[in-house]
Structures are given as structure tokens and as C-alpha cells.
């Protein structure tokens, strides 16, 4: 079992900061579990009433505080995959070399989840799969303690996407071992370039895939001949730029690292970055945590006022490329989606303890609570992006991860404006 940190405490709305963590929340709220009980569970999770969560094949467990002087034992069960489904899933991961690399970097490839689902292998919970249990006397389905456990899990998925694999039946070590075996088998059966006619070779993708994504640097030897620590990777660049160059060696290394990351994503089939405009690419670079000097240089290069550029960077971090589109200007939304959101926000059954009633003004893709300084915007990704005004009458700023649920988005915006 894998111990993990607690869910966000009071004052922090977001249960997840990644798309896959938020996808877990969306799947939970689209399940057959009782909506009212889930609402109570959200409140418990935000109050920090869920203890350390553990994940094992097919089950999540945690102690959850309640009305009794001792915590309750809560658990949520999820079906494990069959051996045939695991073979399909592992083949899908091994088919694209960048997928394993992304997982080891702490990222869940979105296309992997889609491809697996299309092949009949669910990674995220299906609507009727989550099966809660608890030692409390509440016979609700789920009780608020098990519901809180479900919400708290999203933060742990942020930290380690391999939790999804553990819940589906195999640990991180078992998955990586199976992938290593598949990579080695592909390498052993790959055509040798020495036998090919002159002028021919192998496609770059196949050559890249022939290397194991879990490569371990060779160990050095001590004076006694025993294995020592792995040898440190060589410095990627050793030649300084010429005097007077507008960039430094550190700048070149940062760009080299960024290029390698993008190449890995392209090898995995993520081609969206190929169509980036110069502005979108500058925002993308700034969102990676570059130095302050780089940030200012990128700002000047785009010609945008510093605050406008900073707003786009924050929008990308919270909502991805769709978040940038939402921040750049008003969009024309689907009227039905806007109407559905207003209906959901007006429905008292969809509001938990902290949402309550709200008066909203609608304009284009935006729903605004003027008296509270909060706003949610519908993006081209059909998610709601929370915004706040740091000072009344000031510009609007993205404040929390986007979500498919307008009620959750509004609560995120409200929480962001609450005193800390």
C-alpha cells in the first residue's frame, strides 16, 4: 500500500491540480453515487477530516473524522482489470515510447486514457464502479466519510498517476517491470540497420522506441571492484556562447531541456504544440518556471503589458491552452451549455454548505457575481474556468483549475477570494 498526503484543508478549493486528478473528480460526480452525500463528503474533505489515504489493488482506505470521538474506517472499492485487459493496456503504453517517460515524469498521457477506454479498458471509474463502505452507522450510499475519501484521492493522483494502475490491480513496480520486458522484446526483434540497403534506415519513432524508457545509468566500480553509485550524467553543454551573445550557457541548457521534453511529447503523438503561435509558445515557456530575467525577456518579445502576459501564463497553468483562449477575450458559447450551468447553479440540491444562492450576470461565455467579485468562464474545452477580481473594479484573474462542473468552478472562485 502507498501512503500519501492529506487532501487540501479549509481555504483551498481545488481537490486536484492536474487534468487526471480533476478527471477523477468528474468521474466521481458523474457516477451513480448519491449527489447529496457527495456534497457532504466534499465539505468533509475540504475541512481536512480525511487521514492519510492508502491505495491497494482494488481499494482505497483512510480513517475519516466524524461526530464520534474516534475516526471511522472508510474504504472505496474499484474493480481490478483482468489479465487480458492488462495486456491490452500495457501494449498501449509500450506502443508509444513517450508514454512511459511521461508516467515516470509524473504525468498521465490523456491519449492513453482515451485509447484504453476505446479498447475496453477503463482507467478512470465507470459510473457504477465505485463501491463505498464505512464503519459508521450511516447507511447512505455513500456515507459522507467514504465520499470525503473519494474526493481526497484526487490530490494523491496528482502526485502519482500510477495510483490509477494500483487501484486497477497492479503496482507501479509491476507495471514498469512489464513495460521493461516489452521494450526488451521489441529491441531484440528490431531490424538491424547494418543489414539494410545503403541509404535506408529505420523511422525515428521506431529508433526512439527501441530504447527502454526505464534505462538505468551503468554503475561505476569501487576500488575493490564492487558496484558503486551510478555515474553522474555528463553536462549537456560544455562550450560557452561567444562573448557578447544575448544568451548564456544556462539559457542554452534550458532550451535544450525544453526541446527534449517537446520531442518526447511529439514521439507520443501530442502534435498540438506544432501549431503554437509565437505568443502561445512564449506563454508556454514562461509557465515552465523559468527565471525572472527570462520571464521579462519573453514579456518584452510579445509586446504585451507585463500584467497581461502574466495573466496568460496563469491561465495556462490553470486551464491549459483552452485557458489561454478564455483569458484572451470573450467567446461565443453554446447557449444550451450556458442555460444548463445557470440551472445547476440555481438548484439548491447541487449547492453544498459553502455555495448557497448566488445572483449571476451572463455575458457571452461568462457568468459573473458582481457583488462578490467572482466569475466563471466557459472555455472551448467545455470546462468552466474560475476567475476573481483581486480588487473590486480591477482586472479579472484566473484563480483555480478548470472543471466540467460550474458549481465546483464557482466555489473555487469564491474560495480564492475568502480570507486566508
Structural features, described:
- The chain is an alpha+beta fold and about 425 residues long.
- Among the domains are: about 180 residues, no CATH class; about 80 residues.
- Helix content is about 45%, strand content about 10%.
- It has a five-stranded antiparallel sheet with strand order 1-2-3-4-5. A five-stranded antiparallel sheet has the order 8-9-10-11-12.
- The longest helix has 23 residues.
- It starts with a strand and ends with a helix.
- The N terminus is likely disordered.
Secondary-structure element order, N to C: EHHEEEHHHEHHHHEEHHHHHEEEEEH
Strand content: 5-15%
Helix percentage: 40-55%
Low-confidence stretches: 1-12, 192-199, 207-235
**How many strands, what sense, and barrel or not for the largest sheet?**
5 strands, antiparallel
GO molecular function: zinc ion binding
Protein name: SWIM zinc finger family protein
Keywords: Metal-binding, Zinc, Zinc-finger
InterPro entries: Znf_SWIM (IPR007527)
List the topology elements.
Layout: E1 2-3, H1 19-29, H2 35-46, E2 54-56, E3 59-64, E4 72-77, H3 83-94, H4 97-104, H5 110-118, E5 131-134, H6 144-159, H7 162-167, H8 172-189, H9 204-209, E6 219-221, E7 227-230, H10 249-267, H11 278-286, H12 292-302, H13 306-328, H14 335-346, E8 361-363, E9 366-369, E10 374-378, E11 384-389, E12 396-398, H15 406-417
Antiparallel strand pairs: 1-2, 2-3, 3-4, 4-5, 6-7, 8-9, 9-10, 10-11, 11-12
Amino acid at each position: 500500500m502507498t501512503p500519501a498526503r492529506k487532501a487540501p484543508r479549509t481555504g483551498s478549493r481545488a481537490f486536484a491540480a492536474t487534468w487526471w486528478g480533476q478527471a477523477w473528480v468528474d468521474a466521481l460526480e458523474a457516477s451513480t453515487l448519491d449527489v447529496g452525500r457527495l456534497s457532504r463528503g466534499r465539505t468533509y474533505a475540504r475541512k481536512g477530516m480525511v487521514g492519510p489515504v492508502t491505495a491497494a489493488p482494488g481499494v482505497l482506505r483512510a480513517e475519516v473524522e466524524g461526530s464520534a470521538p474516534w475516526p471511522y474506517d472508510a474504504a472505496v472499492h474499484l474493480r481490478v482489470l483482468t489479465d487480458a485487459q492488462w495486456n491490452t493496456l500495457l501494449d498501449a503504453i509500450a506502443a508509444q515510447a513517450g508514454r512511459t517517460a511521461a508516467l515516470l515524469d509524473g504525468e498521465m498521457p490523456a491519449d492513453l486514457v482515451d485509447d484504453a477506454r476505446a479498447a475496453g479498458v477503463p482507467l478512470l471509474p465507470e459510473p457504477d464502479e465505485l463501491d463505498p463502505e464505512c464503519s459508521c452507522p450511516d447507511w447512505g450510499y455513500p456515507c459522507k466519510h467514504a465520499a470525503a475519501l473519494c474526493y481526497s484521492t484526487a490530490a494523491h493522483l496528482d502526485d502519482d498517476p500510477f495510483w490509477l494502475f494500483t487501484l486497477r490491480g497492479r503496482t507501479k513496480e509491476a507495471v514498469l517491470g512489464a513495460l521493461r520486458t516489452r521494450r526488451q522484446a521489441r529491441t531484440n526483434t528490431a531490424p538491424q540497420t547494418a543489414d539494410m540497403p545503403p541509404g535506408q534506415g529505420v523511422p525515428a519513432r521506431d529508433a526512439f522506441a527501441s530504447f527502454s524508457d526505464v534505462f538505468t545509468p551503468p554503475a561505476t566500480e569501487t576500488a575493490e571492484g564492487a558496484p558503486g553509485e551510478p555515474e553522474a550524467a555528463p553536462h549537456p553543454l560544455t562550450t560557452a556562447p561567444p562573448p557578447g551573445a544575448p544568451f548564456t550557457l544556462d539559457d542554452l541548457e534550458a532550451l535544450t531541456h525544453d526541446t527534449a521534453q517537446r520531442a518526447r511529447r511529439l514521439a507520443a503523438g501530442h502534435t498540438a504544440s506544432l501549431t503554437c503561435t509565437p505568443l502561445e509558445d512564449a506563454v508556454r515557456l514562461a509557465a515552465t518556471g523559468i527565471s525572472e530575467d527570462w520571464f521579462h525577456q519573453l514579456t518584452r518579445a510579445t509586446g504585451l503589458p507585463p500584467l497581461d502576459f502574466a495573466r496568460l501564463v496563469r491561465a495556462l497553468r490553470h486551464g491549459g491552452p483552452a485557458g489561454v483562449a478564455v483569458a484572451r477575450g470573450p467567446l461565443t458559447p453554446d447557449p444550451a451549455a450556458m442555460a444548463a450551468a445557470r440551472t445547476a447553479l440555481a438548484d439548491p440540491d447541487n449547492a453544498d454548505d459553502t455555495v448557497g444562492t448566488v445572483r449571476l450576470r451572463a455575458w457571452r461565455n461568462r457568468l459573473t457575481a458582481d457583488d462578490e467579485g467572482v466569475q466563471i468562464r466557459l472555455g472551448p474545452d467545455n470546462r468552466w474556468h474560475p476567475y476573481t477580481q483581486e480588487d473590486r473594479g480591477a482586472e479579472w484573474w484566473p484563480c483555480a483549475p478548470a472543471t466540467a462542473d460550474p458549481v465546483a468552478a464557482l466555489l473555487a472562485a469564491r474560495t480564492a477570494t475568502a480570507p486566508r
